[in-house]
């Protein structure tokens, strides 16, 4: 969690900037429908070119904008910007510069998919007219995107394509199916008021209790539901935007079998699945993070995504 003053975030019409090497992020405040304040970053500075195709990059758990662009300006966001895209990076509630609100302990994944993502989409739509958006998600960022589309919260009228990297919710982390383990995890989360990902060396951001408890529920039961019983898969048959999904052959956190099953559950007419590994002609068997971060990803994974985006998206 990074902090800024309320005044700096008070008005979306008065954005601030952040330098990342040779790149600049323009930072906006976005108010959600449930009155939470998010931060949305856009690569570049005004005046922006309205003809650039829009790409929205959604981070996963324990993460923030730094997954997409480093302090020195390295990352997929910079790569896509250099290739003519209008790149936007939202930080979901409680991550990065998005503020920890009074309801932090009550936030759930349902809030992210029903409030955060639609609010971000609406904000971008208000500034880039007549541009459908391409959404790219890593890990749970991709799961969030699909859930938002399936639930009808993210309108397909405004989305031209989605790309998912290491995104699934059922397989891996089998220990979460054992009651003593989940009891210990939930007790720890309850006692600390958050999941201590930073303390455990799992990432740069802690997670709100409700979000982690919902994720644990998915792993334990295999059911893609909110804690209130909402079925996130109810609209998978109705998704019609093109889908690209990639899985790392050596990803032990979100294994390729789970990513493939998640991909297969989406009934879009145009779909592409790619396993990032030696058997598919890549130079290495990619893992969960290095599939999108690092020199190897920059040389052979990013170009695959950009080629697909340019071919599938109007």
Automatic annotation (TrEMBL):
Q: Does the keyword Hydrolase apply?
A: yes
Q: Which residues does the UniProt record annotate as the domain AB hydrolase-1?
A: 53-183
Q: Name one GO molecular function term.
A: hydrolase activity
Read off the Gene3D superfamilies from this record. alpha/beta hydrolase
Identify one Pfam family in the record. Abhydrolase_1
Lipid metabolism listed as a keyword: yes
**Top-level taxon in the UniProt lineage:** Bacteria
User: Keyword annotations for this protein?
Assistant: Hydrolase, Lipid degradation, Lipid metabolism
Q: Name one GO biological process term.
A: lipid catabolic process
> What is the protein name for this chain?
Alpha-beta hydrolase superfamily lysophospholipase
Q: What is the lineage of its organism?
A: Bacteria, Pseudomonadati, Pseudomonadota, Gammaproteobacteria, Halospina
């Amino acid at each position: 969690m990074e902090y800024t003053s309320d005044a700096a975030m008070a008005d979306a019409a008065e954005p601030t900037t952040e330098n990342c090497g040779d790149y600049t992020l323009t930072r906006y405040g976005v108010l959600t429908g449930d009155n939470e304040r998010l931060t949305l970053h856009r690569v570049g500075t005004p005046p922006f070119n309205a003809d650039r195709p829009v790409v929205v990059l959604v981070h996963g758990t324990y993460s923030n904008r730094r997954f997409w662009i480093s302090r020195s300006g390295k990352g997929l966001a910079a790569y896509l910007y250099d290739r003519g895209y209008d790149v936007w990076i939202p930080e979901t509630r409680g991550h990065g510069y998005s503020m920890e609100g009074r309801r932090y302990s009550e936030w759930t994944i349902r809030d992210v998919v029903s409030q955060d993502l639609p609010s971000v989409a609406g904000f971008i739509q208000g500034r880039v007219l007549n541009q459908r958006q391409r959404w790219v998600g890593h890990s749970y960022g991709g799961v969030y995107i699909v859930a938002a589309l399936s639930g009808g919260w993210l309108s397909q009228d405004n989305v031209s394509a989605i790309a998912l990297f290491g995104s699934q919710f059922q397989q891996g982390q089998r220990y979460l199916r054992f009651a003593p383990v989940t009891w210990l995890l939930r007790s720890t989360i309850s006692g600390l008021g958050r999941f201590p990902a930073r303390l455990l060396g799992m990432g740069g951001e802690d997670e709100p209790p409700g979000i982690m408890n919902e994720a644990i529920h998915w792993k334990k039961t295999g059911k893609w539901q909110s804690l209130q019983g909402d079925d996130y898969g109810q609209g998978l048959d109705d998704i019609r935007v093109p889908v690209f999904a990639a899985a790392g052959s050596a990803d032990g956190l979100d294994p390729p079998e789970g990513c493939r099953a998640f991909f297969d559950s989406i009934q879009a007419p145009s779909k592409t699945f790619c396993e990032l590994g030696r058997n598919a002609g890549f130079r290495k068997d990619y893992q969960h993070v290095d599939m999108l971060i690092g020199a190897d990803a920059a040389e052979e994974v990013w170009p695959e995504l950009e080629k697909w985006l340019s071919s599938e998206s109007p």
